[in-house]
Amino acid sequence: MARATGLWGTLTAPLLRENPITLQILGLCSALAVTTSMATALTMSVALTVVLTLAAGLISLIRRHIPDTIRLIVQIVIVASLVIVIDQVLQAWFFEISRALSVFVGLITTNCLVLGRTEGFARHNPPLPAMVDAFGNGLGYSLILLVIGALRELFGKGELFGQTILPLADEGGWFTPLSLMLLAPSAFFLLGGLVWAIRSVMTGQAEAPEHVAPRQGEPAE
Amino acid sequence: MMRGIWGREMVALMLLAALAPMGLAWLWSEGLPALARLVLALVISGGWHIVFMLARAQPPSFAGAITALAVAMLAPEELGLLRLFLGISFGVVFGELVFGGWGRNVVNPATVTLAFLGFGFPGFPWPEFVPPVAWAAIPAALIGVAAGVMPAGVVAAAVLAGAGAMAVDLPVAHVLPAAGIVLVLLVADPVASAATTLGRWLTGGAYAALVLLFATGWQGAAPVQLCVAAALLTSLVAPLFDEIAITLWLRQRRRRHGRA
User: Fold this and answer.
1) Per-residue pLDDT averaged across B142-162, rounded?
2) Is the pLDDT of residue B164 over 80?
3) How far is CA B37 from CA A193, B51, B74, B189, B195, in A?
4) A15-34 per-position pLDDT tens digit
5) Is B162 exposed, middle or buried (0-12, 13-18, 19+ CB in 10 A)?
6) Residue A113: which domain range?
7) Which residues of A touch B3 (CB under 8 A)?
8) Residue A140 Cα distances to A79, A86, A123, B31, B106, angstroms
């Protein structure tokens, strides 16, 4: 895969080509849990992107001073402090959404995506590239969350951001909601379909097959 | 089963032949609407097989017709064209074709379709069967087992467990017809059920146990609905039963021969 260089490349690579969710399969837990509606998905995306960008900047600033043996603890302390700040902000101004997100804002602390970027990139790069990379990864995560959130809310409730798009049959319209979309399995199906679609277009992302089928018409052994 | 005439399509055709008496009895009793559903299911399922043949060079299979028959017989009624299309597409593509076609799927595509339709559109009534259709499940199972295309252990274990439940007077008589039809259509599937002898007996037993559990404990569920749920859970645990059977076999072998 041709690799774009420079800050622009660092920012755009995680959007599709190295997307944290669909290629690295990181941060799935929250991606599956908060995508029942666009509002929660968007809030979660913003919260994670802010935390990730700030954490990457801070860790990158002190990267030469973090002792190797306790680096994970230092990173988690920084991330956790930022998560607490975000959580308080959400509770102060967006109480309803904060209730809907429940424990998942707190769990940003342990999101593999955040630790993966701080451990894998911010620890070895100056603050500006580190923050750009973190911001790009946050955007990549947000993109997938918003796509899945939009599909689930549209087909599960006929709404987007709470606005009716497809009028429901119960209320005089024609659309019967697919209630499966509001259950957790549908997020798995949609994510699987999305990964499939992306890997069919960008064939470089597809993994090598683990098994090769025996040839037709020959004895099995 | 790759020698002589016993290729994959031969197995699929024998399964179709085994299910034919039951399918014909069902068509006879339900008439034209049933035929229309069957044709619709056949067209959708066959369409996806052709799409995957063109896109991925996967040979299409007569197994698509078995899926179509199972879905047409067991799917909730009055769903309408769009929902049936969505459900069958989901089941056939995500249940079978993405894994490489019939023979490599983990769960039965018809089971996936029915579970999807049942969970996705809970308000629709599940079908009821007249007694001749349920009786026709017996020749279907007999032909399938005699031809070696249905796993005998699964059928035998389920029938024995059902007979045992009747003998101790559990209140399950109302689900037995649906349980038999679902057994031959979804559970006794050579691909998605267990592959070891012990695993097959455990699979059949697990299906019967789940049906008995749901029949006595799940209030307000239609017979077909609870049997389909039991079939879905059974096909999910079938690989575990195989794993148990293989582990036991390896352990026995180590004890007898001193090495694995």
Assistant:
1) 91
2) yes
3) 27, 21, 11, 22, 32
4) 888 888 888 788 787 778 88
5) buried
6) 10-148
7) 219-220
8) 19, 20, 20, 53, 32
Task: Provide the domain count of chain A.
Answer: 1
Report whether B98 contacts B84 (CB < 8 A). no
SS3 B127: coil
Write down the pLDDT at residue B131.
Answer: 86
B39-85, pLDDT tens digit by residue? 999 999 999 999 999 988 888 889 999 999 999 999 888 888 888 89
Over residues B88-134, the pLDDT tens digits come to 999 999 888 988 888 888 899 999 999 988 888 887 888 888 888 88
Tell whether A206 is covered by a domain.
no
Average pLDDT for A99-107: 82
Q: Which pLDDT does position B3 carry in this prediction?
A: 62
What does DSSP assign to residue A163? E
Q: Min CA distance, A183 vs chain B (Å)?
A: 9
- List CB contacts of A174: < 8 A, sequence separation 6 or more: A166, A167
Q: Are A141 and A21 in contact (CB under 8 A)?
A: yes
Contact A176 B83 (CB under 8 A): yes
The whole-number pLDDT of residue A219 equals 53
| Global pTM value | 0.81
* Model ipTM value: 0.70
Q: Using CB atoms within 10 Å of the CB of residue B169, give its burial: 0 to 12 exposed, 13 to 18 middle, 19+ buried.
A: exposed
Phi/psi of residue A164, each to 5°?
-70, 125
- In angstroms, the CA B208 to CA B216 distance is 12
Question: What percent of chain B has pLDDT above 70?
Answer: 98
Q: Look at the alpha carbons of B46, B50, B52, B57 in this order and tell me if their dihedral is positive or negative.
A: positive
Partner-chain contact B94 A219, CB within 8 Å: no
Return residues 235-254 of B near A (CB < 8 Å): none
* Angle of CA points B184, B230, B82, to nearest 5°: 80
Q: Torsion over CA of B156, B162, B168 and B171, rounded to 10 degrees?
A: 180
Map residue B202 onto helix, strand or coil. helix
Q: Which of residues 135-194 of A touch B (CB under 8 A)?
A: 176, 178-181, 183, 189, 192-193
Classify residue A46: in a domain, yes or no: yes
State pLDDT tens for residues A108-124: 888 888 888 888 888 88
- A177 inside domain: no
Distance between CA atoms of residues B75 and B60, nearest Å: 23
Contacts of B90 in chain A (CB under 8 A): 189
How far apart, in Å, are the Cα atoms of A87 and each of A45, A49, A105, A131, B236? Answer: 13, 13, 6, 21, 39
Q: Name the residue facing B3 among A214, A216, A219 (closest C-beta).
A: A219
Which tokens sit at A110?
């342990």
